[in-house]
Amino acid sequence: MSVLTLENINFSYGKTAVLNDVSFDFEKGKMYCITGKSGAGKTTLLSILSGLAAPQSGKISYNGEDIAKIDKYKFRSKYMGVIFQSFNLITKFTAVENVMLSMDIAGVEDDNKRGKALELLHSVGLDDDEANRRVLMLSGGQQQRVAIARAISYNPDIILADEPTGNLDTETQDEIIEIFARLRSEGKCVIIVSHSPDVAKKCDVNYELKRNKKN
Fold first, then answer.
1. Which CATH class is domain 29-39+68-208?
2. pLDDT of residue 211
């Protein structure tokens, strides 16, 4: 059964149609790549998938339920973990504090949140020293790992990543994709938006958005 389904999604900016009858199916235990040229609607689709925007027509279902009937805050803080291209970490906090804050926002109940946050950071390749640094003192690849740990800190079904390897070297890109592959093997639905052919090749399913010819 699909964990997330898009049925005939349409979205326009004024008279400019961006998404036209987009229908995609996403299942747990699979890794998806959404590709498309600039202007094809990837950013718009990201906003719709994460519940930050609503389609002008069509339906999105989460485990068979119309997400229009689900509280959007609850959807984003419990069911879907979003990894932003710019990380969106709180720079005055350490890596572990960023993850703990995410757990607090999601209402995670754990007597040792710091220990759990450290465990998550270890699982994405950061050691104790790196976990306790302010995020501005970390490299881009390390910040990406913090963003992943934050996104999975409340155990969501779906991981949505926006160009997660866009600014990384090839070796770090491969390591990040390996983390996503592990999450897939743990039963997560991983959705990656990427321009990278290498990333697309490592995913189970590729969906391509076509740019509206009238644009």
1. alpha beta
2. 81
